[in-house]
Amino acid sequence: MHPLHSQISSALQSRQQLSVNGEWLNEFLDSRGPNPPPLPALISTAQFRILTSDITTSLSPSSTGLFPRDVADVNVKARQLPGTVVVQILDVLDVGSSKWSQVEAIERVERGEEVRGREVIRTVDANGEEEGPDPTATAASHASATGPTATADGSVTNKKLTAGPHRLVIQDARGTKAMAFELEKIPKVGISISASVPSPAAHGDQAFRPSNQDDIGMYIGCKLVLKPGTVVRRGIVMLKPENCVVLGGKVEAWDTKWKEERKQTLNTLLVNEHDAGA
């Protein structure tokens, strides 16, 4: 075992309830070489690596800090998590907005359009040249729950994050999956409209490049800490600000795949809903 193993393991556990996998941590420390950086830097780097990793490999699947194996059992009316559970997000859906409005929001970003005040701004055309505002288009005609909302003075502002509530698919360090529902608004839980669209390289379109300022919200692979006492009702984990802490993070491969498939997924859900209502 690496000489710094216990110190880093203890620090990660006390700071963010991250029970690191011993083998994973040894490999991480060995990769730092014979002259590793100072301890604070090592702890910060290890924490970052965990937040960008699959926790089924980086965290310890111990008997504590995990979901009950039957957590998704809908026959259990209600239960509480006995301890702290760190989970990662595998999927997210804004159930407070219509699926069609979410598809429209994605397509606006794909076309290089954004809503600003009462105007729809065409930011970049197909040749990469900037264009001005379209004075004939109003924000109301392009509004959705993921886009602009009216303020007290009647003006329209652009919300970059989905409004929610959100339904999540989450997974613990053992690999046990569960559904979760945002019962009350949780800070940092939301999908960035621009960040939920594949990058230009993903679809060969150079017309849209979201700025870093646009890329807000959470990503697939984001880590959450669920506190003891969190209620699980009929197999659904009930999320509230007092029982859920967003650590952040992102698993790049998962997030890229989710973005590429998101519009098709929403369209499939729309078709299924239409068929069920027919």
CATH architecture of the largest domain: Beta Barrel
Number of DSSP strands? 13
Question: Would you tell me which CATH topology of the largest domain applies?
Answer: OB fold (Dihydrolipoamide Acetyltransferase, E2P)
What is the radius of gyration? Answer: 21 Å
CATH superfamily of the largest domain: RecQ-mediated genome instability protein Rmi1, C-terminal domain
Q: How many individual domains?
A: 2
Roughly what fraction of the amino acids lie in strands? 15-25%
Largest sheet: 8 strands, mixed
Helix % is 25-40%
Provide the CATH top-level class of the largest domain: Mainly Beta
- The average pLDDT value, as a whole number, equals 78
Low-confidence stretches: 125-158, 200-215
Termini separation: 63 Å
In which order are the strands of the major sheet placed?
A: 1-11-12-9-8-2-10-13
Structural class of the secondary elements?
alpha+beta
- The DSSP helix count reads 7
Which overall shape is indicated by the principal axes computed on the Cα atoms?
globular
| Topology order in helix (H) and strand (E) letters | HHHHEEHEEEEEEEHEEEEH
InterPro entries: RMI1_N, RMI1_N_C_sf, RMI1_OB
Organism: Exophiala xenobiotica
GO biological process, one term: double-strand break repair via homologous recombination
Protein name: RecQ-mediated genome instability protein 1
